Amino acid sequence: MTTNLGRPNLTTTLEAQLALATRQERPELGKSMAQPVLEAAEEAGDLSLQARALACIAQYEELLCRHRSAQALSTRAAQLFQALGNLTGEAAALTTVARSSSVLGRDETAVEAALLALELSKRTEDPHAVVLAQAQLGHTLAHCGNFEAAREALMRAEVLARECGSELDELVALVMQGACEAFRVVTLRHETGHMPTLEQVQGLRERLVRFVAKHDMVALAQPDQTQIQVFMNLVSGLFHCWCDDVRLARSALESARAWLDRTGDAPWMDTFEALVRCELAQVERDLPLAEQQARRMVHLGGHLEREQAALLGHLLACRVFELQGKHTEALGELKAMAARERRIHNESLSTRHEVVAWQLDMRRSEQSRRALQVSTAHFEKLSMEDPLTGIANRRCFESAAGVGLSHCHDSGTALCVAMLDVDHFKQVNDIHSHVVGDKVLQVVAALLTEHVRAEDLAARLAGDEFVILFRDTDTHSAWEACERLRAAISRHDWEQMSPGLAVSVSIGLAQSLPGDSLETLLRRSDMSMYERKNATRRPA
Hints:
Blueprint: H1 8-21, H2 27-44, H3 47-63, H4 67-84, H5 87-103, H6 107-124, H7 127-144, H8 147-163, H9 167-192, H10 199-214, H11 217-220, H12 226-242, H13 246-263, H14 269-283, H15 287-303, H16 307-323, H17 327-383, H18 394-411, E1 416-422, H19 425-432, H20 434-450, E2 457-462, E3 465-470, H21 475-491, E4 505-511, H22 518-535
Antiparallel strand pairs: 1-3, 1-4, 2-3
Helix pairs in contact: 1-2, 2-3, 3-4, 3-5, 4-5, 4-17, 5-6, 5-7, 6-7, 7-8, 7-9, 8-9, 9-10, 9-12, 9-16, 12-13, 12-14, 13-14, 14-15, 14-16, 15-16, 16-17, 19-20
C-alpha cells in the first residue's frame, strides 16, 4: 500500500522532522515543520508518512482554533490510516474528527467519528486511548443535547481512568462532565423557563473536591496540562455560581483568568469564561454585564470557529434580554441562532460532499495502483516465460540455477542439470512444416512439465533445446526421471499430429561440483547430451 520514498536518507530525515514537529509547544511552529513533510510524502506517494503528517497538522490547527481545517485534515488522515490498516492512527485521527466536528456543530459527523474511535481504541488495547475516546464520546453527545447518554459515557471514562491508574485522565473525565453539566443546565433552563435540578451538579462538585484533596495538583499542573487546570477552575466557578456561592465563584474565575493571562495559549477557553461571567452577572443581577458577556460568547464562538459555543451564547443572550423585558431583542437572538444552525447544517453537508469526492479519488488511486500491480506482474511473468511453449525461458532458468548454485556452495549440497534436444528437428520442420515443428516443441514442453516434480524447473533455452533443473536430487534419481521422460516422448502418438511423424530426444545429465559456475555446469551437461546422441545416432 505504501511506496517508499526511494531515498533512505531523505526518508530518515523526514521521519525525524515529523517526530520533532509533533513535540512542539508552539502550534504555528509545529505546523510549519510538519507541512514540508506532508508535501514531500504526497509527492513520493508515501501514504503512511502522509497520514501521520496530516494528523499532526490537524492537531495543531485545532489548537489554533481552526477547526474546519482540523476536521478536513484529520478526516483525510483517518481514511489513510484505515487504508493502511493502522488502527491506532485511525482511532486517534477519528478522535480529532469528533472533537473538531463537535465544536463546529456538525453533530452527526461528530457522533459517528466518536463511536468509531471508541471501538477502534478498544481493539488497540491501549487503556489511555480508550479513556480519551470514551470521554470524547460523552463530550460529543453533550454538544448534541443527549445529556443522559453523555453523562453515562463520561462517568464510564472516569471509572476506566481510575481503574488504569491515570490521575490526569480521571481529571479530564471529571472536567468534561462539568462542561456537560453547563450545556445541560443552560439548555434545559432555556427550554423550560426555570432552573433544572442541580443534584447532578452537586454530586460532580463533591467528586471534584475529593479529587483535588486526594491528588497532588501541582504535579498534575505540568506545562502541557495547563488547559485542563484552567478548565477545572472555570467549571468550579460555574458550579459555585449556581449554588449561590458568589465569593468562591469569583475566586475560581479570577484564578482561571490568572492562568490564562500567564500562559496565553488557550483562547478557546475565553468562550467558557464568558459563560461563567454571564452566569455570575445574572446571579448578581448585573444584567447589562450579563448581556455583554453573552454577546462576547457569541462573538468569540464565531471568531474561534466554536459554533456550539456561539449557539450557547445566543441562548444566554435570549434569556438575559427576557429578564430585562427586551422581548424583541430576545426574538432577534432566536432568529440569529436559527440562521446559524442552518449555516452549520449547510456546511456539514458541504463537507460530506468533499469527503465523498476525496474517497472517490482514493478509490481511483487504489484501482490504478492495483492495475499497475497486475500489469507489472503480467510483464514480469512474460519476461520469465517462453512465449511459444508457456514454460520457463532461459532468463528464468539462469536466475533459478544461479540461486541454486549459491545455495549449494553455502550448504555443501549439489544439484543436477539435464540438457535435451529433439533429434533431427530440422528434418521435422523440412518434412512436416514449421507449424508442426512448433507443435512438437509445445508437446515436448508439456511432457517435460508433466514428468518433473513441483520443486524442479523445466525451461526452453532456444530452438529445440530444453533444460531441467533438479533440486535436492542425486544423479541416480535425476537420471531415472530423464529416462521416464525420454520414454514418454518416444511413446507419444505423434502420428495424429502429422502422418509419418516420430519424435525422440537426447538427454545429457551433469551434477554440480564445488566451484562450479552455471556456464561450466551447462557445458558438462551439454557434452553429456552429445555423447549420448552420438552413441545412439541412427540414420534419419
